[in-house]
């Protein structure tokens, strides 16, 4: 392991891993460091949990380890299912197993797109802007989809939560 990779690994463990675990990742590790200081990370658990905070992770690593110039997230394993099937199957699972439950909170979830093993979802109604939306995605929706869809790499929430007009749990209720 190079000195730069060791320094990045130490910085990950010291300040970044706890935030990533809180969002649904189980581990983050250095996959590669090139000669230009570009660091490629791998995430276990919920790689979709890392995407929204990847720019903050990169900023923290550039401050903690001056040799880091950029940070990327390694792509996950190739999906087993055809990409065209993944989105439709994910939506059927959401409609049958998730939407009836979150309807009690005036919520609804839609599979917007799927490619490369990733399913992009949008939370609507009472879920849009809800302070527990991340928990719903990382501890409810994603594990369910992972159990039912062997080709799933991760779930990315593309909801504009700031635009939520009537969240079930407002940010003040945290």
How would you portray this structure in words?
- This protein is of the alpha/beta class and 174 residues long.
- It has five helices and six strands.
- The chain has helices at residues 3-23, 47-50, 54-64, 83-102, 133-148; strands spanning 25-33, 38-45, 70-73, 107-115, 118-125, 154-157.
- A three-stranded mixed β-sheet has the order 1-2-3.
- It starts with a helix and ends in a 17-residue tail after the last strand.
List the helices and strands and how they pair.
Layout: H1 3-23, E1 25-33, E2 38-45, H2 47-50, H3 54-64, E3 70-73, H4 83-102, E4 107-115, E5 118-125, H5 133-148, E6 154-157
Parallel strand pairs: 2-3, 5-6
Antiparallel strand pairs: 1-2, 4-5
Short description:
The chain is α/β, with parallel strands linked by helices. Helix content is 41%, strand content 24%.
Instruction: Tell me the structural class.
Output: alpha/beta
| Proportion of residues in helical segments | 40-55%
Rg measurement, Å: 17 Å
Number of strands: 6
Number of helices: 5
Low-confidence stretches: 78-83
Specify the biggest β-sheet: 3 strands, mixed
Q: Determine and state the CATH class of the largest domain.
A: Alpha Beta
Helix and strand succession? HEEHHEHEEHE
Distance between the termini: 41 Å
Mean pLDDT: 85
Shape: elongated
Number of domains: 2
Strand content: 15-25%
The main sheet orders its strands as 1-2-3
**The CATH superfamily title of the largest domain:** Fe-S cluster assembly (FSCA)
Write the CATH architecture name of the largest domain.
2-Layer Sandwich
> What name is given to the CATH topology of the largest domain?
GMP Synthetase, Chain A, domain 3
């Amino acid at each position: 392991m190079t000195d730069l990779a060791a320094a990045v690994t130490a910085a990950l463990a010291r300040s970044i891993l706890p935030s990533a675990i809180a969002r649904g990742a189980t581990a983050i590790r250095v996959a590669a460091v090139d000669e230009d200081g570009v660091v490629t990370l791998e995430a276990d658990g919920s790689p979709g949990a890392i995407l929204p905070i990847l720019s903050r992770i990169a900023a923290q690593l550039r401050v903690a380890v001056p040799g880091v110039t950029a940070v990327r997230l390694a792509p996950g394993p190739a999906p087993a299912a055809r990409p065209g099937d993944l989105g439709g199957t994910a939506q059927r699972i959401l409609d049958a197993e998730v939407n009836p439950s979150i309807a009690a909170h005036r919520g609804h979830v839609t599979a917007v797109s799927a490619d490369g093993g990733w399913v992009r979802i949008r939370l609507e109604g009472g879920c849009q802007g809800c302070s527990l939306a991340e928990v719903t995605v990382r501890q409810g929706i994603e594990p369910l989809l992972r159990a039912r869809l062997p080709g799933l790499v991760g779930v990315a929430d593309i909801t504009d939560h700031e635009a939520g007009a009537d969240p079930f749990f407002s940010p003040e209720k945290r």
